[in-house]
Design brief:
By secondary structure, the protein is of the alpha+beta class. The protein has helices spanning 6-30, 34-43, 118-121, 154-199, 204-224, 228-254, 263-271, 277-288, 290-310, 316-345, 347-355, 360-364, 367-397, 427-435, 443-451; strands spanning 55-61, 93-98, 111-115, 130-136, 145-151. A five-stranded antiparallel β-sheet has the order 3-2-1-4-5, with no helix packed on it.
């Protein structure tokens, strides 16, 4: 049992209570209007009226085409719109049967052959797999047309999810299950609060700070229990989130980032006129470093607690130094995790820019790579600074150093024992007599010895 400083406990409690109050106030103030968000979602049409997305079962997969059609697949059949190819096509297409009849096919489930790019033909697609098509109904005398949209991957993704949950439950047990519950809560905050608030035009910085704080308050206490140790990690996490947010705002403005680095960003900017793309980028920078920041702070808090339990005689300065030795090792490995995670996500962009044979400095200054660099560095700096802050808070929160007990001497738990009159001395009595009495530790003990 590790003692806790009363003053530090009160100070930590006041800070977290004020942070929780600010988070609740932010949630109430920034909570999106359901009517406005629903209106914007409904007004953003994914496809033209009448267009449907039927599910079909693959019956045959043709090999990729060669020559002029090697990059596009089979050419559409004559008189057909969309990607429907002739039934006698020999390459670059898949033959599928719709799972449900269409309004123009009566009770018959249509069988169609649609052109697909070579990447789909060589992806391992086989008979019996399910795909999704885009169907345009007949209009203006033109027949209905189909285009390949995507492969249905629900089964393998669900299997991986179940495997993940089972492994976490078996290895981490109840703590792992509670962490999964916290993860679900984080997703709920993201979907129900952060995304609608961004669509409604709220500040991306405020949305990220409030949303991340709400997630961390619930996730940390749910997974690690309601304790001073967890509260220490939470305080360090909130500090790291604040540092990351500040650096993100400065970097986005200083680097003149627009927040529109790809087609998805351009599409969002055209759909949602009330949202500033730079706000979205700032929010993404803060959220991106949240998980690894939580990992570092809870580890540092636990390390200091265990050090105090194992070495109660360490002063606060030595305790901080010992905790920082652990923290430096953790920082080194975590930085690798952040950098390589972002590098893996941006690998296609890196490869494309590499093929262009542009100078390295020019490559790094492109909008897409600059966003990844800013996101990586802001998260890494916030993480690194959170380590000493969390370690310092933990070192100040745990109780002060305790004087070690003298071997063989009296202690509060085992007071000195006097032999009974006439009893022979034991080996321990002889050893204590040879070593001499230990020095008194208090004035009261010295007076007691003088009166004997």
């Amino acid at each position: 049992m590790v003692a806790v400083s009363t003053v530090a406990r009160v100070g930590l409690t006041v800070f977290l209570v004020l942070s929780a109050a600010a988070t609740v106030f932010g949630l109430v103030r920034l909570w999106p209007d359901d009517t406005g968000a629903s209106h914007r979602v409904a007004s953003s049409e994914y496809a033209a009226p009448g267009v449907t997305f039927p599910i079909a079962v693959v019956q045959a997969v043709l090999p990729p085409c060669e020559g002029a059609d090697a990059q596009t697949g089979a050419k559409p059949a004559e008189g057909q719109s969309g990607d429907v190819v002739a039934s006698d096509a020999t390459c670059g297409a898949v033959t599928v049967q719709l799972e449900q009849p269409t309004p123009s096919s009566g009770d018959v489930r249509p069988i169609v052959s649609v052109s697909v790019p070579p990447a789909i033909s060589t992806s391992g697609l086989r008979d019996g797999d399910t795909v999704q098509l885009l169907r345009i109904p007949p209009r203006d005398g033109n027949p209905e047309s189909y285009s390949f949209l995507q492969v249905q991957r629900g089964a393998p993704l669900s299997l991986m999810l179940v495997l993940f949950v089972v492994v976490v439950a078996l290895i981490a047990r109840w703590r792992g299950i509670l962490a999964l519950v916290g993860l679900c809560f984080g997703g709920l905050v993201l979907v129900r609060f952060m995304l609608p608030a961004l669509v409604g035009g709220a500040s991306g910085l405020l949305v990220a700070l409030v949303g991340c704080s709400a997630i961390m308050f619930v996730v940390l206490y749910l997974a690690h229990g309601l304790s001073v140790r967890t509260s220490t990690a939470l305080a360090g996490t909130l500090f790291g989130v604040g540092i990351t947010a500040g650096l993100g705002v400065l970097a986005v403005g200083g680097a003149r980032l627009s927040g529109v680095a790809d087609d998805e960003g351009a599409t969002l900017a055209s759909f949602i006129q009330t949202m500033d793309p730079k706000d979205l980028l700032t929010c993404a920078i803060i959220v991106a470093g949240l998980g690894v920041l939580n990992d570092v702070t809870i580890t540092q808090s636990s390390a200091v607690w265990e050090l105090r339990a194992a070495a109660p005689g360490l002063g606060r300065r030595e305790l901080f130094r010992s905790g920082m030795r652990i923290g430096r090792d953790h920082i080194a490995s975590t930085i690798y995790t952040i950098v390589f995670a972002y590098a893996g996500a941006a690998l296609p962009v890196l490869l494309l820019l590499f093929l262009y044979e542009r100078p390295v400095l020019d490559m790094l200054q492109t909008e897409s790579l600059s966003e990844e660099i800013v996101r990586t560095l802001a998260s890494a700096i916030g993480l690194v600074l959170a380590v000493p802050v969390t370690t310092l808070i933990a070192a100040l929160t745990v109780g002060g150093a305790k004087a070690p007990a003298v071997p063989g001497g009296p202690s509060p738990e085992t007071p000195a024992r006097r032999p009974a009159p006439g009893a022979l001395p034991t080996a321990a009595d002889l050893q204590r007599a040879a070593e001499g009495a230990p020095a008194p530790r208090t004035r009261a003990e010295a007076r007691a010895r003088m009166s004997d």
